[in-house]
Amino acid sequence: MEAIRAAHGGLDVLVNNAGVYGPIGSVHEVDPGAWLETFRINCFGTFCMSRAAVPALIARGGGRIINMSGGGALSPFPNFSAYAISKAAVVRLTENLAEELRPYDIQVNAIAPGMVATRLHRLTLEAGERAGQEFLEKTRRMMDEGGVPAETPAELALYLASPETAGLTGRVISAVWDDWKSIHAHVGEIMEGDVYTMRRIVPRDRGYQW
Fold first, then answer.
1. Which helix or strand (DSSP H or E) is residue 138 part of?
2. Is the CB of residue 9 less than 8 Å from the CB of residue 16?
3. Which residues are catalytically annotated?
4. Is the separation of the CB atoms in 66 and 111 below 8 Å?
5. What's the whole-model pTM score?
6. Would you state the CATH architecture of domain 2-115+154-175?
7. Which of 82, 94, 118, 141 could form a disulfide with 35 if both were Cys (CB 3.0 to 4.6 A apart)?
8. Residues ≥6 apart with Cβ < 8 Å to 47
């Protein structure tokens, strides 16, 4: 942070983009130390970087924090429990930070980038059957087809960092499945409800009377 301040006069945007898959396999077979290390990197690392950046963002009069979520954060991801649970924690950390930092005009959002072809997916191929046959085959297809272009989540990060999305905070946006290029037109509606958030569904949400 000191180097950034010296070189650029301050900080406007932090993108937390570092992450690992960690151990792959059934929860009763993976190494507990490797599991904990995955959580340390993916979630605690995001916390530490955000904690270090916040004073610089406050000094700047506001800014943006953009966190990378990922597969399994919003739905089960068998055989990748360390990764999925740590990324789900990143979403809730995003929501917490958004509320805490709202008075300082610091917006905090998360991105689900989709299956961008990176070294993470080579680890899936190396894991073989431990990754689960369905996800293994999906990864092979994705690698053959090239996956989601890295430019897609990068463009979303730029969009979330821009003045265009002023007021949007505490949300997780999919770079692949959400029509995010038009979000700026609906920020008021989004912030009035629970769209793009991680919430518990109760019976009345589905029309049940019990």
1. helix 133-145
2. no
3. 83
4. yes
5. 0.92
6. 3-Layer(aba) Sandwich (3.40)
7. 82
8. 93
